[in-house]
Amino acid sequence: MKTIFRGESPRAGLLIVCLLSFALMAADLYWPAMDHYRGYLRLAVTPVEWLVDAPTRVWGTADKLLADRGELQAENDRLRADMLMLARKLQRLEALSNENAYLRSLLNASQTLDDRVIMAELIGVNPDPFLHQITINKGLRDSVYLGQPVLDAGGVMGQVMEVGPYTARVLLITDTQHAVPVQVVRSGFRTLLLGNGDPRELTLDNVPDTADIEVGDLLVSSGLGQRFPSGYPVGRITEIEHDPGRPFALVKAEPTARLSTSRHVLLVFRQGQEYPSEVGGGR
């Protein structure tokens, strides 16, 4: 390794520097005028101190900026996660609120009936688009019987067509094999409301061209055939088409029941009645 000082000149320079240092320290201790010159000396070495301290300050600032950025990023991620969790909870609360309101309306609907009712839950839907059928979680153990009316908070949904020990299959009013005796509330006109395979549409059977019906009329179960309770909403007339060449008008209605969205239904028990085992509603 090479020495720092080689020859006589470096040693002499070092000696001079040491002597100068001792002289300055002695002057600082024993020469009162040194207090006046100390400020000028400090001003002279300030740039040197600033340059020496610059790397430390730059590193500290960069480290603080990186730390702040990391904390902000972490906090931003945490807030975003919290927002998503709150949004999920809000959606769940909205769904529960809607379900609670629906169950309340279903309870109010059951209180308007004179017959005994039980509540059931939909657990399955027939995937065949030509068969409008659902499966509920009540069966023979709950005294469910063939032809039993099934309602929701909006109106008549259908009737039981098959019963098992713990489940039952329900034929909806929109199925082509279903019919409901109905009556127009406004005029008292009675007819049959038939399913035509469209989940949003029903057809009135054999309506005379001169019948007192109007668009918007409410159709309720008439009670004829003693299958469905009388006075319960079934549909509302949406279209009336008069054809001069035909003796009957073409009348369409929409179901009042929420056939595609209802999860809970009512099964109606009518006291003191004998019920036939076949289904079809008198069609």
What does this molecule look like?
The chain is α+β, with helices and mostly antiparallel strands. The protein folds into 2 domains: 39-111; 116-269, Beta Barrel (Thrombin, subunit H), CATH 2.40.10. The protein contains 2 helices and 12 strands. It has helices spanning 8-30, 34-111, and strands spanning 116-125, 133-136, 149-151, 156-163, 168-172, 179-184, 190-195, 202-208, 218-221, 233-241, 248-255, 264-269. The chain has a 6-stranded antiparallel barrel. It has a 6-stranded antiparallel barrel with strand order 6-7-8-11-10-9. The longest helix has 78 residues, at 34-111. The radius of gyration is 45 Å and the shape is rod-shaped. The N and C termini lie far apart (115 Å). The model is unreliable at 273-283 (pLDDT under 50).
Task: Name a few traits of the molecule.
2 domains, 12 strands, Thrombin, subunit H, single chain, rod-shaped, disordered C terminus, 27% strand, 6-stranded antiparallel beta barrel, 283 residues, alpha+beta
